[in-house]
């Protein structure tokens, strides 16, 4: 039929993109994998061979179970397929067990659970407004979005080389976002509650959900003068939300509450014994803070203002999670990072309460919450930048301003993931995939908003170009110098500090767009 033609067209290119990226994932099965591979193998073993009451107590391996209960059940489900590949991987005592069958199973489990992500991307593509149907598919916002999400560089290297299940988790997140765009708010809230019980890092985005649902779902109508009248508040909707969210949490934590294990589970989920910065410093505000502290202490020693003997032995050289003591600047506690995070995101939350801009305003607020917590959070992992890059992709194909921020954020954020892959064979892979993704995002977004408009200005271009010499120095030149032995952490420090500026800048640019309102340059459908 005439109506079905565009839909089939969509299906064919979407399938091609999915198969293409799946092929790359299969080719990466033999690639290097990090200790996260052993973490997940250990969790398969724990959930398979121990009763639920022991899951959060088991500590044979140093990689104890520290994700919420739904993720533990997810691993439990996988373990029933794993036993057909190699039963030995399900023995808790088999530390660092990695037979070919085990590797094959774990890699395939990531590739197949990514189908949740593929479905979510398909739903998100339906939500973007492409104006009139463009003559060439390649130039349509939904096509560009599908590539930016399915072929996202960060997800490819973090999940399919480094090893984790982020694709599956982001699938649940993006599906929840798509449901809000489609006005199916209860489904969206349900999915987000499930997501929080799969991985609690998404708590960072929870304030955006809470305020958006209260303001745009529970308040039924706005007054013409913009004032809030509580009689417009639907307690039935609030009750429905409450029942959905509470029942998900009850299902998740109920068994552990019954076993009197709630404190133990929570202590595993929120370990504040870890340091301010992760092993590989995430490119955030604290990386700049630590670098400033380091610089000041070196300067102080040179100028004889500080006594070397009195300084804390700060070993930032290692790659392991450890406490970093500040020599000059005051030390930072988890509470301070929490306060900084809350201050950094509160204007965005106020904004969607007082001037709600529908699902798009909500999504921008999610991105700001993810970025604020990335910049100021405690023990942030550099992978957390994907929580901002992926949802921002959706806004980037609709508004020129967001596209500009996306290019800066994605390029610096993805480059800061490079230290995760430090093995030689993976070097050309990460360079090529990064170049492919970055070139595509620059060219396709430029095409989307007509060639004559500039998405980024000269200063921004110069900053981004600086990433190339930085990378050449860190990866190729520095290892040849004599400093490699004495100061092995310098490349990491340089990458983190340089990328931190771009990410902080993106944060402020996004705030500017939020407070001013985006200029949509693609022709919008008239509602």
**Estimated helix fraction:** 55-70%
**Total of DSSP H or I helical runs spanning 4+ residues:** 23
User: H/E element string?
Assistant: HHHHHHHHHHHHHHHHHHHHHHH
Number of DSSP E strands: 0
Give the biggest beta sheet: none
Unreliable sequence segments = 1-8, 315-322, 522-527
- The fraction of residues in strands falls at under 5%
Mean pLDDT, rounded to whole units? 85
Radius of gyration: 24 Å
Q: What shape does the CA trace take?
A: globular
Class by SSE composition: mainly alpha
Distance between the termini: 26 Å
Task: Report a brief summary of the structure.
With 527 residues, the chain is mainly α. It is 64% helix and 0% strand. The protein has helices at 4-27, 35-49, 52-55, 69-82, 100-113, 115-127, 141-150, 153-163, 166-181, 185-196, 206-218, 235-258, 262-269, 285-302, 334-354, 358-376, 386-396, 400-415, 426-448, 458-465, 467-477, 483-486, 490-516.
Can you tell me about this structure?
α1 runs parallel beside α7, α2 packs across α4 and α11 (206-218) packs parallel to α15. The protein has helices at residues 4-27, 35-49, 52-55, 69-82, 100-113, 115-127, 141-150, 153-163, 166-181, 185-196, 206-218, 235-258, 262-269, 285-302, 334-354, 358-376, 386-396, 400-415, 426-448, 458-465, 467-477, 483-486, 490-516. By secondary structure, the protein is mainly alpha-helical. Helices cover 64% and strands 0% of the residues. 39% of the residues are buried. It contains 23 helices and no strands. The longest helix is centred in the last third of the chain and has 27 residues, at 490-516. The protein is globular. The two termini are 26 Å apart.
